[in-house]
Amino acid sequence: MVAPPDNHVLRAHALHYATSGTPVLAGVSLGVREGEVLAVTGPRGSGKTTLLECLSGRLVPDSGQVWFRSSPVHPLGAAARERLRRESFGWIGTEPQLVPELTGWENAALPLLLRGTAPRAARTAALGWLERLDAGDCARGRPASLTQAQRQRVAVARALTAQPSVLFADDPTARLHSADSASVLRILTTAARSHEITVVLATHDPGVAAHADRRFALLDGRPADPPADRDSGAGDGPAGGNDDTEGRTTCSLSV
Ligand SMILES: Nc1ncnc2c1ncn2[C@@H]1O[C@H](COP(=O)(O)OP(=O)(O)OP(=O)(O)O)[C@@H](O)[C@H]1O
């Protein structure tokens, strides 16, 4: 096993994953640089969610390697992967998946409370992020009383409150209207950049991918445009669609 280069916070090498005998990922390699916003793009069913799940330790690939900084993730057992996710990773899904019995701030504070942070400090941090995300008015409401966009803002606050090293966002705005989508994405990416949180963002929407620094395109579980030198790690080099792009969205917000 070879540890990733220093400037990669995450690295995957030759990932294969199949479900019911059908290949979902078929030899995917990529590196994610510290602090970047990387969009994993591709049509529906191309394997984006599965790739994020393998990178984040939610799924164990059938073969291949995943590294987080200088530590291998793929050989870890379930408890160690869960600890890694709790301590170092955040996840925002397409659906907010909030706890219905808890208020907005309680939902946003949950990762800190699970880590053992004192309730008062967890509450202060959660309220701070809700305010920064223009969701201060969601603090006292339970999820059922909030709109879809408000619930997703609470989910974003929950992910950021934990100050993850890497935030995985799986089509986080797919259920939002375009104005809400643009606003949530702008706030999410601005907050991540100002707090040096690496983001891996799955989307099939080029408008969403435009918020990222770089794109990695999948097609049928493979890199859509692999670099000529695959051993150097697909998605790392200046080749094809998996390349540094000028997609970074200029934003004056300070979150
Ligand atoms: N648990 C599972 N059981 C059966 N098939 C699965 C499972 N997970 C993924 N698949 C299949 O693997 C393929 C890739 O799924 P995946 O969700 O990773 O793609 P995606 O690019 O994220 O798609 P979408 O944009 O629709 O979310 C699809 O054909 C999907 O049906």
Which descriptors would you attach to this protein?
single chain, 255 residues, alpha/beta, Rossmann fold, seven-stranded mixed sheet, four-stranded antiparallel sheet, 7 helices, 11 strands, 24% strand, disordered C terminus, binds adenosine-5'-triphosphate, nucleotide-binding, ABC_transporter-like_ATP-bd, ATP-binding, ATP binding
Overview of the structural elements:
The chain is α/β, with parallel strands linked by helices and 255 residues long. The protein has one domain (35-60, 82-244): Rossmann fold (3-Layer(aba) Sandwich), CATH 3.40.50.300. Helices cover 31% and strands 24% of the residues. It is built from 7 helices and 11 strands. The chain has helices spanning 48-55, 78-88, 104-115, 119-132, 148-161, 178-194, 206-209, and strands at residues 8-19, 22-33, 37-41, 63-68, 71-72, 89-92, 166-170, 198-203, 214-219, 222-223, 243-244. Strands 3, 6, 7, 8, 9, 10 and 11 form a 7-stranded mixed β-sheet that branches. Helix 3 packs across helix 4 (119-132), helix 3 (104-115) packs parallel to helix 5 (148-161) and helix 5 runs parallel beside helix 6. The chain starts with 7 loop residues before the first strand and ends in an 11-residue tail after the last strand. Bound molecules: adenosine-5'-triphosphate. Adenosine-5'-triphosphate (ATP) is lined by residues 19-20, 24, 42, 44-50, 202, 204.
